[in-house]
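Q: Predict the assembly, please.
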Amino acid sequence: QSALTQPASVSGSPGQSITISCTGTSSDVGGYNYVSWYQQHPGKAPKLMIYDVSKRPSGVSNRFSGSKSGNTASLTISGLQAEDEADYHCSSYTSSSTLIFGGGTKVTVL
Amino acid sequence: EVQLVESGGDLVQPGGSLRLSCAASGFTVSSSHMSWVRQAPGKGLEWVSFIYIGGTTYYADSVKGRFTISRDNSKNTLYLQMNSLRAEDTAVYYCARGQVTPGFWGQGTLVTVSS
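A: Predicted assembly structure:
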């Protein structure tokens, strides 16, 4: 099964909003509300930012929000800050009872 | 405090074997779904395996038949037995709590497969 499709990079200026897309199929993103987003700084472990498409774990800033339309999920970061510069990975549960990740998106704060 | 500490990563020759460990604290491994996820150098994340609370296991096609996930409840530790290792298995291996949503991750252990 191929990885979910994410843009390789997205950039924005401080204070702006950016959106990262994550495209799959009806067998994963489109078929389940089990899309998650992870933030990963260099040399660090991934950190859960969004789960079940749009839910935020305790302690995650409300500047991070998630949504889904059809086979594409999206992560929006509002009020972009320097500390948001990192790699972001999406994941989805699949019809094969497995988990699939996207290729990751590098977010650059200009 | 919830903590996951992986160990066992090493340099191994192609065809070799390795067992990774993930020691948990702050929660009980046997009462949680657990996952292994890996990340090749400079690449994205790749799911490897789940073990459900009830013991059911699932594997990515790329490791099926070569890797085995298990747990030792008495040691509160998750394992990944890796056999017939290939160069493409080179990666940082993370254990994580959760399966549909791996919510808490360890810091990872590096496995390098090379002659």
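The longest strand of chain A covers residues 86-93. Chain A has no helices and nine strands.
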